[in-house]
Amino acid sequence: MRIEPRDASGRRLTRVEVDERTRPARVRLPEIQHDAYLQWDGALDDASSLRRCVLCSCNELYVRKNFPQVTPFVVVLAFSGTVVALLGYAANRAVFSLLAALLVVDILTLLLAQRQVVCYGCGAVYSHLHIARYHRAWDRSIAERIAKEPVEHPSFLLAPPERAETTR
Fold it and tell me: What is the DSSP code string of 46-68?
């Protein structure tokens, strides 16, 4: 599984690959020069699906789709293709074939969107893992409830990333 811890403002700090079968107790976060101590007790269910966050032990997780970066470009092209069709230029064979190709690209974009699990508490993003069916999409009421509760963030999420000092 891939874990992407986030800081308090939601920016990704680093990305680390973890083998959930071996359940390492500590992983090195290379970009921020800290170790993360993972809490595996009760984090996985019987089907090896993530049940709770291994960074902050929050029980509330949601599923989202991570669309490829080409998605906004495809949406703009689809909108302009719709305008072309409404203006009556879709009868031309070249325009019709371009609209068909755009439809194929749009469908592929939706199919290639990767599903991720995100922690409500610390915002950590988990990908490349089996996602259980009981995880649902983002829910505003859960997000507001979690925001009111004090969440114990790991120390590396609170501290600003260390930077190497430059000598003159």
Answer: TTS-B-S-TTT--S-EEEEEE--
CA 134 remoteness from chain centre: 18
Contact 101, 78 (CB under 8 A): no
Averaged confidence pLDDT in the chain: 81
Phi, psi angles (nearest 5°) of residue 33: 55, 45
What's the token pair of residue 127? 């990908």
Residue 12, CA atoms < 13 Å, CB-side half-sphere: 10
| Residues ≥6 apart with Cβ < 8 Å to 107 | none
H and E: helices and strands count for the chain: 4, 7
Q: What does the pLDDT look like over 114-141, one tens digit per residue? A: 899 999 988 899 998 888 889 899 999 9
**What's the pTM value of the predicted model, to 2 decimals?**
0.72
Mean pLDDT of 103-109: 82
- Region 63-88: mean pLDDT is 80
57 CA to centre of own chain: 18
Per-residue model confidence (pLDDT) at position 93:
77
Residue 91 is classified by DSSP as G
